[in-house]
Amino acid sequence: RMANEVEAALQDLIDAKLVRVRRDKQWVEVEINTDILFPSGSSGFSVPAVPVMDKLAEVLKPFSNPIRVEGHTDDRPIHTTAFPSNWELSAARAASVVHEFTKVGIDPLRLEIVGYGEYHPVHANDSVAGRNMNRRVIILILDHSLTTDLPSTTSVAAAQAAAAAVEQPAPTSAPATTPTSPAPTEKTQ
Questions:
Q1: 136 exposed, middle or buried (CB, 10 Å; 0-12, 13-18, 19+)?
Q2: CA distances from 39 to 42, 86, 133, 153 (A)
Q3: Positive/negative CA dihedral, 121, 122, 126, 131
Q4: Are 102 and 108 in contact (CB under 8 A)?
Q5: H helical segments located in the chain
Q6: Residue 147 binned pLDDT confidence (cut-offs 50, 70, 90)
Q7: How far apart are CA 95 and CA 89, in angstroms?
Q8: 75-91: per-residue pLDDT in tens?
Q9: What is the pLDDT of residues 4-46, one digit of tens each?
Q10: What are the backbone angles phi and psi of residue 141, rounded to the nearest 5°?
């Protein structure tokens, strides 16, 4: 049902081959060419991109599925203050999508950001067309069964508390018999 609603909401862009929707038993993938989302070298949306993102967010909002937003770039180097490499640019673009989704009301606990830079191309970067296809944002709407590796809100809170404790100065005198336990760890992807 969700895939059908996504396709209906973005049909004009699908017909123009700027958006692709793929289905699997465990996920729905929405691939958006970044030319319709971002100006070159930027993570700020172009004016026409905001209604597209808002329309997609409205479709996804009623569902509870986790959403992973992946940013991808071509292999053209970028060296700016904001983006020292394509890693930062791809992550910032994914973050822009996530921020827009939360403005529309998608629960931030459902969202995850991944920046792949130029390292997961779908075409050779030796032509304008190939580079254009590599610059994309992928929105993966995951089946709930795929979230076993994602941290729960409890483990996130525990990790944040542990990080805050590390930042606090150590007490000057502690009893020698005080047991210590290792800080909680999270599995990273």
A1: buried
A2: 6, 14, 15, 35
A3: negative
A4: yes
A5: 2-9, 11-15, 49-60, 86-104, 128-134, 153-167
A6: low
A7: 10
A8: 999 999 999 999 999 99
A9: 999 999 999 999 999 999 999 999 999 999 989 999 899 999 9
A10: -100, 115
